Amino acid sequence: MNLTSLVAILFGLLFGALALLLSPAKAFLAVIGLAGAVTILRFPFWGLLLFAGMATFMPYSTVNLGIRTTVSEAILALTWGAVVWHRFLSRLPDGPAFARRPTDQMLLWLMLFSVFPFIVGQVITHAESSGVANWLRWLLNLSGVFLAAQLLVDHKQRESLVVALLLGTLAMLVLSIGVFVYTRSGAGIAPILGLFNYANFETLKFGLQAMSPRMGSPWTHPNAIGGIMALLLPLAFCYGMTEQGWKRALGLGVACLGAAALLLASSRGAMVSLALVLLWLASRRVPYTGRLLMIGAALTVALVIAYPPLQERLATIFSSDNASTEVRFDEYRMFPQAVAAYPLGIGFKVDPPVPGTHLLGISNLWLNYIYKIGIVGMLLFVAVTVRWWREARPESGPIRLTKDNALWLGTTAGILSALVSGLFDHYFSFAVVMVALFWLMVGINVLEARRLFPARLPQVKRVDVAEPLLDGVPH
């Protein structure tokens, strides 16, 4: 009996046991999950595509694998397992030399440094949650940069990943906007999230009901979907403008629906960050950006006129009397007390604020790094972003948007927009899945930048070895 027949028999017995022990629905899902896991182990790149689609469509759908984790993170971990296995079998092509990847190197230093605040947090904070699990999950989410370097070795593969990201985003937007238009409540999506096994469902449902005038989504919080739109909309626009056929429709469809979702979710930080990045692109004379700003303004006016609740929301959204604004002022006012209480950071057991204290959290990307892993950790994150900008920055002068540079320009603008939104929210620091998508975008971006600007790569030092002499003549 050959190995293929043995594997087929074993899987047949396993599927039969699942059918006997589980309900039909659970057995069907288990079979689908096992088939997917085997497929990913055979084809790691498919795992990365599946992660991109799942992470943008239903990011916080969970599965219990001994410990409860999101399906997105489980797929990401399984993809890494497949990469390690294929590396062991020498089935993956060699990527660029690690010594020539400055962004990756600095990110690795950040990950290594996190060991110190992790240990400190285990000692000084007291909570029931597992600091070990939270730390490992954060490292897994950061690893998208390295996974991209392993699997996205050519432009075609990067384009396939972008298509997967946009397809998942399109499905999420159609679902979210459709449910909100039908129910006229942000809590209308709660039953669907329960069907996808979201964790802490009762608390989540209560939170959605409290923010019912704003659109609900699989990202659970209106500001979270705003952050994801800030990250992905520039990529969708650049990709759609340079493609033809269904790819053009996909990119521009995500851009238009994403803009509508921003207004319905009323995320101030995402609106401001996208507007600033669009102005920067317009100043660099990127085609269509000026017209896009005018069209966006016109559509905003039309949507506000057609939807009265949005008028009420926008009337107070930038007011100093807005409750969210007041909370943010309180967070900044009390932040020095948090730093004084935890100068080395609180680690990974809990997210700010620490339970049992009078302190508040902080809605700022960089300050949240200080809160979690200390000032040194935040400086290392800044060093990573500086290294990234040195690799990915555009050349001086006008920028031409072409099919060849659309992925680079779209991801560059998206990352900049996400960083600007970090002035208002903290999601791209330690929020699982969102962090993974952010660093995966960085991975795509630096790979495209290295292809377009090879002269920026640090040169590997060559050691010239003298040729042996034969009768005084080089031989």
From TrEMBL:
| Keyword RNA-binding on entry | no
Give the membrane topology, semicolon-separated if more than one. Answer: Multi-pass membrane protein
The residues the entry assigns to the signal sequence are: none
Q: Where in the cell is it found?
A: Membrane
What keyword terms does UniProt attach to this protein? Membrane, Transmembrane, Transmembrane helix
GO CC, alphabetical: membrane
Q: Which InterPro entries does the UniProt record give?
A: O-antigen_ligase-rel_domated, WaaL-like
Concerning PANTHER family, the annotation shows: TEICHURONIC ACID BIOSYNTHESIS PROTEIN TUAE
What range(s) does the O-antigen ligase-related domain occupy? 255-382
Membrane-spanning parts? 106-124, 136-153, 160-182, 188-208, 220-242, 248-280, 292-310, 369-386, 406-424, 430-447
Q: What is its main location?
A: membrane
Entries under Pfam families matching the protein: Wzy_C (PF04932)
> What is the protein name given in its UniProt record?
O-antigen ligase-related domain-containing protein
